[in-house]
Q: What sequence folds into this?
DNA sequence: GCGATTTCTTAATCTAGGTCAATGCTTTTG
DNA sequence: CAAAAGCATTGACCTAGATTAAGAAATCGC
């Protein structure tokens, strides 16, 4: 018989995320859950501010966020859009307890599962299997960041925009266009021009 | 009494590298060494070619290398300079056995300790502690790649060049200047101009 | 439902950095 | 040791993309 529950199973997605990486028993998953904190935030909340120490890594159950750096002229560069099934945080700040270089801002009302430094270390001690899960996650993240760095230099803004649409077909419906410009590292005006030039063909 | 040896201890540096991450016993280090292969390569050797599958991760005992992407016009973008105490490889290709996006070319005669996929998995199985070592390595690598991506977009070429000199004061004596331009994502001519403008001040 | 704020577009002008080509200087290599 | 290859520099000219400004459209908050 199925357990009745007010809030469905808030761990369903994150468990599936883990299982895609390697098999976990019910017991292991329960232990994992015990280290997580469920949190709801309103649209436009600031999860992390440049200069602060990043206290949590956060898995998105539902919602949308953006990690970005604001330069001296107040222009920002989007490092990452995160939606359902993504993790948020500033790794450098989280692990070294140094001031973060990045801001994290929510673009929609968002539900998160959060883990702080001590909880993560305790989890890793209790279930060393998770070292591997997190290693693989970070490896994938590094590979995609390397690709993005190289693409950003090697290709034109129009090419990078086309590649972005292909890789993230659902992001444009969820975030304002000038954030996409800031992800591509171009001005909003120029992105508008690119879009218009494309239409003309 | 010290063991006499023709080739000193070729593991001295890599062991120190590991110990900076966490403590290891002599036995553990011996097991680790048993998975490594020592290799010498001549200057200009190609360790990995765009399109091939990356078969090894390589620790540099002595020497200098460059990882780069060559675009359709034959221009290249340097992803990484590696010298003593760095690791080389294309993570995405190594783990997923997909064609590599990058070339790795040696800039000096180089001595490496290499590990292939099967050996690395066997090492991780026998000594799961290494999951953590590699996780931490990859995290640091990701953090610096994120910074580089953002800096590349946010700052001017001259600023990025100054930051490069500060971060890697010894690289310019070991690699031709046009490789540094390709790391910064600018033309060699423009780097030459930047250097000249700076002198003028 | 309406004013206020954000967002997007368009157009004129400007600039960081690219391209091309020529010259001299170092390294390699045979 | 000479010829060739690779490297750095300089200058003239070109272009992708930035900046500024202003109006139009969409969305938000009450």
A:
């Amino acid at each position: 018989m199925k357990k009745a529950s007010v809030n469905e199973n808030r761990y369903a997605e994150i468990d599936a995320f883990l299982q895609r990486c390697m098999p976990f028993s019910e017991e292991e998953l329960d232990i994992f859950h015990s280290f997580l904190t469920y949190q709801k935030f309103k649209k436009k909340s600031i999860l992390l501010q440049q200069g602060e120490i990043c206290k949590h890594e956060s898995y998105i159950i539902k919602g949308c966020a953006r990690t970005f750096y604001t330069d001296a002229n107040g222009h920002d560069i989007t490092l990452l859009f995160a939606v359902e099934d993504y993790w948020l945080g500033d790794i450098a700040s989280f692990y070294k307890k140094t001031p973060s270089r990045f801001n994290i801002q929510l673009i929609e009302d968002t539900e998160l599962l959060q883990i702080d430094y001590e909880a993560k270390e305790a989890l890793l001690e209790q279930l060393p299997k998770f070292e591997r899960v997190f290693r693989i996650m970070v490896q994938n993240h590094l590979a995609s960041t390397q690709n993005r760095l190289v693409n950003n230099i090697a290709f034109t803004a129009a090419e990078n925009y086309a590649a972005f649409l292909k890789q993230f077909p659902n992001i444009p419906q969820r975030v304002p266009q000038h954030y996409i410009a800031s992800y591509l590292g171009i001005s909003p005006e120029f992105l508008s021009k690119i879009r218009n030039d494309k239409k003309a063909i």
Observations:
- Helices of chain B lie at 12-19, 26-34, 91-96, 117-126, 129-154, 157-167, 177-184, 188-200.
- The first strand of chain B starts at residue 37 and ends at 41.
- Residues 156-157, 186-187, 189-190, 193 of chain B lie near DNA strand C (CB under 10 Å from a C1').
- The longest helix of chain B spans residues 129-154.
